[in-house]
């Protein structure tokens, strides 16, 4: 064989290999789907594998921060992934606003997921739920002192409150819910009062707020339930010791209810494997899988047929805010403005 024939044969083989790999582009294949996710939990990977085993559909997973993945979807256009999976309704709404998602019709999803935990236009669906609560030190705070989110902004809690920064999407969504329930002026007053009552400048994540309370930097923290659930069941003995000194209080039980948010998933506008994508969402919302979510990651199930994990049950039932979570995204920009106005760092 001549050198020229060998050369062209090599070129053909290289092109065939690149075509088979598909580069970075999303491709249509009846036996696969492509998922972008900002979640990083072992249980998620286990469930994707279970889905593959049951259906024969391979789940190709690419991880990144929510904002990075949104920008990637915008940049890739028609060559992007089939699914976008992230925490917080505010981020999901951000993707919807940028015309990156599409509406989905599914009787199974309508049955498994309450309407208020999904987008009004069915462009995203909540899969796990978490409450943003008051966590307090058992020895320094009597739970009878606690009542509402609004009460945290009063003078009795001066220099006692630990909470994350205004850049945190969980806090943005919390304030967005207050805008919807109480109006902008009251939401502004609340944010201003919390800034006055902060025991320190905001720093770190939710677990850091819990550790700060135990270290004596403050007496109460605002944080998501699943963080404390994870700490109570952690392999790190120090985290367990911290969590055991704390307890949970669900605020606003006699008024508007406790704030809840979701991790949610959406079919992208240009999904090439749409049917496979919908099948995965239906799988993740099913009774058995929701039970696995709840027991492994201490998130509340969205499926009303499934009970919470034992750790969460011990904290008791609670009344939730009665709003559709789409509003958290719609009010996000206004919430950020308020944070800036009151100098919430």
UniProtKB/TrEMBL annotation:
Recorded GO MF terms: metal ion binding
Record-listed Fe cation binding positions: 40, 226-227
Any Gene Ontology CC annotation: outer membrane-bounded periplasmic space
Signal sequence, renumbered to the chain: 1-22
Gene3D superfamilies: Periplasmic binding protein-like II
PROSITE patterns: PROKAR_LIPOPROTEIN (PS51257)
InterPro entries given in the database record: Ferric-bd (IPR026045)
Superkingdom classification of source: Bacteria
Keywords for this protein: Ion transport, Iron, Iron transport, Metal-binding, Signal, Transport
Coiled coil: none
Biological processes, Gene Ontology terms: iron ion transport
Record-stated family: Belongs to the bacterial solute-binding protein 1 family.
Protein name: Iron(III) transport system substrate-binding protein
């Amino acid at each position: 064989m001549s050198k020229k024939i060998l050369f062209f044969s090599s070129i053909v083989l290289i092109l065939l290999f690149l075509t088979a790999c598909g580069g970075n582009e999303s491709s249509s294949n009846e036996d696969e789907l492509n998922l972008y996710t900002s979640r990083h939990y072992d249980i998620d990977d286990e469930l994707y594998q279970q889905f593959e085993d049951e259906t024969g559909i391979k789940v190709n997973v690419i991880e990144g921060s929510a904002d990075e993945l949104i920008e990637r979807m915008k940049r890739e256009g028609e060559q992007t992934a089939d699914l976008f999976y992230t925490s917080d309704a505010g981020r999901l709404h951000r993707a919807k606003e940028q015309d990156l998602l599409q509406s989905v019709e599914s009787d199974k999803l309508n049955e498994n997921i309450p309407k208020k935990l999904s987008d009004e236009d069915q462009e995203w669906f909540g899969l796990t739920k978490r409450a943003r609560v008051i966590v307090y030190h058992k020895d320094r705070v009597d739970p009878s002192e606690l009542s509402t989110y609004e009460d945290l902004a009063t003078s009795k809690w001066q220099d006692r409150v630990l909470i994350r920064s205004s850049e945190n999407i969980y806090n943005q969504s919390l304030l967005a819910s207050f805008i919807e329930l109480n109006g902008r002026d009251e939401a502004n007053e609340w944010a201003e009062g919390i800034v006055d009552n902060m025991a320190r400048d905001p720093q770190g994540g939710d677990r850091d707020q819990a550790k700060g309370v135990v270290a004596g930097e403050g007496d109460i923290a605002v944080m998501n339930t699943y963080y404390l659930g994870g700490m109570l069941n952690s392999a790190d003995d120090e985290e367990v010791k911290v969590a055991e000194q704390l307890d949970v209080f669900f605020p606003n039980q006699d008024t508007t209810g406790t704030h809840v948010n979701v991790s949610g998933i959406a079919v992208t506008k240009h999904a090439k494997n749409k049917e496979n994508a919908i099948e995965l969402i239906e799988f993740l919302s099913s009774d058995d899988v929701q039970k696995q979510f709840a027991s492994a990651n201490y998130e509340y199930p969205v499926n009303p047929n499934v009970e919470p994990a034992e750790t969460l049950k011990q904290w008791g039932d609670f009344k939730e805010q009665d709003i559709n979570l789409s509003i958290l995204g719609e009010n996000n920009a206004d919430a950020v403005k308020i944070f800036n106005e009151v100098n919430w760092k």
